[in-house]
Amino acid sequence: MSEYDRTDAGIYDNFSTGLDGDEAFYVEEALKAGGPVLEIGCGTGRIMIPIAEAGVPIVGLDQAPAMLEVARRKIAGLPEETGQRIRIVEGDMRTFDLERRFPLAIIPYRAFLHMMTADDQRRALTCIREHLADGGRLIFNVFDPSIEIIAAYMQPLGRAMCHMGSFTHPETGRRVMVSGTRRYDPLEQTLEEHRFFEEVDDEGRVLSKTVTPLHLRYIHRFEMQYLLETCGYEVEALYGDFRRGPFQHGNEQVWMARRV
Predict the structure, then answer these.
(1) Taking the chain, what is the end-to-end CA distance rounded to the nearest angstrom?
(2) Using CA atoms, how far apart are residues 154 and 143, in angstroms rounded to an integer?
(3) Do 139 and 255 form a contact (C-beta atoms < 8 A)?
(4) Which pTM value belongs to this model?
(5) If you compute the radius of gyration of the chain from its CA atoms, what whole number of angstroms results?
(6) How does DSSP classify residue 45?
(7) pLDDT tens across 83-100, in order?
(8) Which of 77, 78, 112, 201 stands the most exposed, by the fewest C-beta atoms within 10 Å?
(9) What tens digit of pLDDT does each residue of 9-24 get?
(10) In this predicted structure, what is the pLDDT of residue 9?
(11) Torsions phi, psi of 202, nearest 5?
């Protein structure tokens, strides 16, 4: 099963709540650009909808139909004026063609890491660049690989099950217990994760179970800089968090680059 099938789409927002400060950061950058904004990997609209609510037109692109369906349901409940600022497109960040250009493109919540090969990465960055206006900017974030964490999740330890939290199911009101396995491959620079969502009754009996895979290719700081520069971007800034703090190993890579 591909992670783009997103069998967890209906409960995704209850567990994947984003990173500290990322929503406010991307809304601020969208307001600076003035729109329209292109969001790559818009998913269920966690960043896209607040940007539209702030008054900025936005086009959201994603490859997961189930996630986009959740986004459409959310948009249907918005005031008409806000909903009209949003356009959703199902597509691949490597090959999409919108026949227009944008002053700003964003890739929040580490979505760029779904590009599993160097060729995928170059194709995506090139395709996005073709959708940027002259001098347009690309802003995105990826996690910075921590040597300590990678070492802890290499085989055989990496496949051990670990508890990842719980939440209340939005439809049934029952508790959902979340666990997962994780494995890093430092040679291939990949992360393989499986998340298990178990809905339980008051006695703790499992009533339903959903398993979702996640495959990412992580990127080191200078590797990412080289990719940007060879694909026609000039790096303007690299931050370590969404408060524009300095970059430090093992935290976030928040990139700001301009089309040249």
Answers:
(1) 39
(2) 18
(3) yes
(4) 0.94
(5) 19
(6) S
(7) 999 999 999 999 999 999
(8) 77
(9) 889 999 999 999 999 9
(10) 86
(11) -65, -25
